[in-house]
Amino acid sequence: MKTPEQMKSAKFYLLNLHFWIIMFDYSFGILTIPFFLFPVVGGHPLGVLRYLGVSTLFQTIFVCIAFNNMLVSIVAIFESRFNTLCTFQWMKYWRRIRVKWLVVYYLVTMIPFIMFSFLVPDQAIASHYIKEKLPCLPEYIYQADNLIFSINFSNHIIVLMLIGIIDGSKGIFFVICLTWNIIQQLKAGTMSQKTYRMQRKFFFALVIQMQVPFITMSVPCIYGFISILALYYNQALTNLGVIACSMHGIISTLVMILIHRPYRELVMKVFKKPVTVLSKEVSKHTFPLKLNSLAPIRN
């Protein structure tokens, strides 16, 4: 199926986003399957990598980087629309550096998560910290290969909040510039109403596609922060949050299929059974019948 014109410029960025969505979904829901012990900033993995002998610290950093790159990919999609549609005078300078900016953006946002690995406390001491904070847990939880990521987690929260603010501010900047510039193009008559309606429909579809999975992820994350700050322990709610995060990939895929008409039509075409209808006129032309013709009868 041919990619529609309004989606060609964003095709690579949508592919990049779903690559990182799959990476995060598989790493979180299959390879690691974290068992968090909130309000303690720690836990232990239950996934495939645990049985392959991969260290818990490496698994944690791997999931964090996949999550970070997924957020950066969302910003990259809105930047692609900004680059394609906006006609600011300074856009020629932006187009010269945008690829380098995007690569640096990925690398810079990954550095804090790598640096966190050097701030992990001594696990021999941290294991006693779990018993102090959560003294009534079953013994098998204490004996598991728990990783306490941080005891004094204030620095981690500050860094994570800064990354979130940077990602959010960049996304808002591109959306505001894109909206304002399109309105100016309409007023100046440099963009037709048909093009405007087509781009607006695609833009709203992108916004919905980003918001639905974002809500799926934000609710468990908000609960995690509240649990840590309020020293509240509820393993059932924590496990429900993990389940919700692990469903992020399938929700993102379903939303993409439902929102974008070309993808929706292609999926429906796969499951639709072909129906062959033979009209009377076609039958007459295909099998002409003469009333005065004779045909031999064979036994």
The beta-strand count equals 3
Helical amount among residues, as a percent range?
A: over 70%
**How much of the polypeptide forms β-strand, as a percent range?**
under 5%
| CATH fold annotation | Rhopdopsin 7-helix transmembrane proteins
How many separate domains? 1
Largest sheet: 3 strands, antiparallel
Unreliable spans = 282-295
In what order do the strands lie side by side in the largest sheet?
1-2-3
- Count of runs of 4 or more consecutive helical residues: 13
CATH class descriptor: Mainly Alpha
The topology string of helices and strands comes to HHEEHHHHHEHHHHHH
Please give a quick description of this structure:
This protein is mainly α. 73% of the residues lie in helices and 4% in strands. The chain has a single domain (5-286), classed as Rhopdopsin 7-helix transmembrane proteins (Up-down Bundle), CATH 1.20.1070.
